[in-house]
Design brief:
Helix content is about 5%, strand content about 45%. The protein is mainly β. Strands 1, 2, 3, 4, 5, 6, 7, 8, 9 and 10 form a ten-stranded antiparallel β-sheet that branches. Strand 6 and strand 7 form a beta hairpin. The relative contact order is 0.30.
């Protein structure tokens, strides 16, 4: 049969943060919820909204962090102000990168599509902020929410996400 379009995890070493920050086609998450939060104010899901505000690799209350309960997975769901024909997602991992295992897109009317599922192929250097970037064929609907599922047991330590950017054009 015909080849199936697939998503690609981009090598993080080729990601230029300055270009991400200045990308006119990118929009930062406007809202967020999560399966758990380490705190009600600090470390909560809302810390993953807006542009990055964690300066260095660290355990930082300005990023979302899961509660630390003993579960195999946790999720962070972010929403965007403008639904777009999405083709790329960029996640700024500011503590213990490399545990994202599934990314789902959502649109109006309950439409949903798994964009990617697997093991992050990147090998991240120690103690460094790292972007997880996924390029994918645009789903057949305008995307306004994305859910990231983390494999909590994949790496020891707290997993923290500072910002999520969706890239796409108006539908």
């Amino acid at each position: 049969g015909p080849a199936v379009d697939t998503a690609t995890v981009i090598d993080f070493a080729g990601i230029d943060e300055a270009r991400v920050l200045g990308d006119p086609r990118g929009q930062w998450a406007a809202g967020a919820t999560a399966s758990s939060e380490y705190g009600n104010d600090r470390y909560n899901a809302r810390q993953a909204t807006g542009a990055p505000n964690v300066a260095v690799y660290s355990d930082n209350p300005n990023a979302w962090c899961h509660s630390g309960r003993s579960v195999p997975e946790e999720w962070l769901e972010v929403s965007f102000a403008k639904p777009v024909r999405a083709t790329e997602l960029r996640v700024r991992q500011t503590f213990t990168p490399g545990t994202i295992g599934k990314i789902e897109a959502f649109g109006a009317g309950g439409r949903t599509q798994v964009l990617w599922q697997g093991t992050d192929p990147n090998t991240y250097p120690a103690n460094r902020i790292a972007w997880f970037v996924l390029r994918f064929p645009a789903p057949p609907f305008a995307v306004d929410r994305v859910r990231l599922t983390l494999n909590i047991g994949a790496k020891a330590g707290w997993k923290q996400i500072d910002a999520v950017q969706l890239v796409g054009d108006a539908p």
